[in-house]
Structure formats: structure tokens, C-alpha cells
Amino acid sequence: MFGYNKVYSAMWFGEGCMIRNSLELGLVGSKASSVNGKRLPSWLKRPLPMGNEGFFTENLVNDFRLVTVCESARCPNRPECYSRRTATFMVLGNHCTRPCGFCSVPKGVPEPVELDEPERLAEAAHRLGLKHVVITSVTRDDLADGGAGHFQACILAVRKRTGAAVEVLTPDFQGDMAAVETVMGARPEVFNHNMETVPRLYRRARGRAEYLRSLKVLRHAKACQPSSLTKSGLMVGLGETNDELLEVFADLREARCDMLTIGQYLTPAPNNIPVDRFVPPEEFERLREMAEKMGFAHVSSGPFVRSSYHAGDTVDALLEKARYTQQLDGQIPAASQAGRG
Alpha-carbon Rg of the chain, whole angstroms? Predict the structure, then answer.
């Protein structure tokens, strides 16, 4: 189209201006060829999705006054996901109470909780035809329950309107296990809480988060609802070593985490932590193999992998397998699954 190369790079640049079409790419492609003085490798470039489905998704999200992490976190997969009529909804506003070094979600005074947001989210998911709905949030340390009650309301509203499986990606609720119990009381099919990186890099990357606290959140979520899948995600390219990653894998398995995602960290904005290195695809494959040998039910590992990227593709099979195993072990009766979304 107009002779421009239909390839986009997995980066944001300038003031966070995203490459949205091949015309823009023709004008700014040279700026996307490097970041932090490092030239982007070929595996971080791919074709731009064709068609207008992305505009449908974007307009619907705007019509329902919703926020997506795809936009706020400047995710490189946004063009692909929006073109597939899918998105990760971010509830509880667009301002986070924690200044994590890797994240571009706006920081500051958070907005008041909108009590009608669960219904708006559920209707949007229905109109998108989603069978697997992913809900995340900013961290709301200003709320007594950290937003757990709002998560529960969103899960129930989505399940009632769509019958879809629901995956939540939650903050750590400052270690409040009662908040975790509130979320798990709605029985999400998947409970995700990201470890993000290795312990040595926590202070720089995650600020006020605590490594052991995050493990405790995952462990408690599984204890509350053994039939729900638990999941966590890691970024690589921040300066971690493979030995450090293997230690995190082991800690996650000890916490009974079922699923793991591993993706390349990409600096979302100039004031965020710079990329230390670009991890090649073959190294992602080795990490996947090592994680699977440690017992994870499913591992997604690759340069473009993010917590909710293609999240629904494997969940149905894993849930059925988990329920069958738990029935054999006597943890849950077969009848207890009736009525789940």
C-alpha cells in the first residue's frame, strides 16, 4: 500500500507514539530500528495485521468508557490482538499507586471506583464475542481491599452476561490474603499474578513489591480454589541470568503455579528501565523446555509473549485436565463443576 513496507517493530518511541499503520511506519521506521543504542533484531519485527477489525475493537472499548492494558501499558501486541477482536481489560481506573520501573501505566492519584464498570465490561465482552475474558487492574493501594471486591463483581458480571471463562491478573493486594480470598470466591478459571523478574532486580523494576509476598499470593489463591489454574509471568532482558530464572521457576512450582509466560522486556517509554539485551528465539525455546521439565502444565515463551497473549488458546484443555485429576484425587466432586462459565 503506497509502496511502504508493512512491517512494524515491537517498540514505542518519542512520547509513546505507536506504529499504527504502514503509512506511519514509512515515516518513522528508521527511528524504530534501535532502542537505547541497541539495534532491534529481526525477530522483533513482523507484518502489520490487515483489515479494519482493530478499529472495531478500539471504538467499542471507547464507547463503553473502558481502559485496556493494551493501550495503557503500550503493549507491542496491540495491533494483532485488536485485529482479532480481543483485548485485556484494565479496571479500577488508569492511574497506578505504585511507580514500577518497567511499566508505562500512568502514576498518580487514582480515579474513584466506577460501580457500573463491571456491567460495561461484561457488555463489551459480549459484543466482542469473547469466550475467554482477561481482566487486570492498576494497583490500588489506596483502597481498603485493594480492589478485590471490584474484581469479584467484574468476574460475576462477565460470567453472567457471556458465559465466558474469566482470567484475572491481579496486584499483590499488599499481601492481604483476605483480598485474595474475595477474588477467588468468584471462582475465576485462571488466577494470574506476575512475578515479573528475579529477586535481585525487584527494587529497581518493581519498587514496593516483594518477591516472597507475590509467591504467597499465588500459593494462597491455589489453596482457596484448587480447581482454578494459577499463572505467572516473567520478563527477560532486564539483566537477569538463566540460573536466577531457574530459581524463580522452582519457587513458582513450589507455590503450585500451573502456567508460566516468558517474554522479552521492551522499554515502553524513555523514562522506564532500559533494555539490557534482546533474547533470541532459541533461548526462549530452551527456557520453555526447562520450565516444562519442572512440571508446569503449560509454558508460553517467546519474544512477543505477554501475560494475556493468546490467553484462551490452552486454558480449556488445561482446565478439563485439572478437574479430571482433582476428581481422581478426591479434591473436588464431579458435580461441583456444574454451572461454571
Answer: 19
pLDDT of residue 36: 57
Helix axes 177-184, 148-162, angle to 10 degrees: 10
**Identity of the amino acid at 290:** M
CA separation for the pair 145, 173 (Å, rounded): 7
The answer to whether 134 and 311 are in contact (CB under 8 A) is yes
DSSP state of 295: T
Tens of pLDDT, residue by residue over 224-235, are 999 999 999 999
C-alpha to C-alpha distance for 73 and 41, rounded to whole angstroms: 22
pLDDT at position 26 = 26
338 Cβ contact list (under 8 Å, min separation 6) = none
Can you tell me the distance from the alpha carbon of 251 to that of 3, in angstroms, rounded to the nearest whole number?
51
**How many angstroms separate the CA atoms of 70 and 81, rounded?**
9
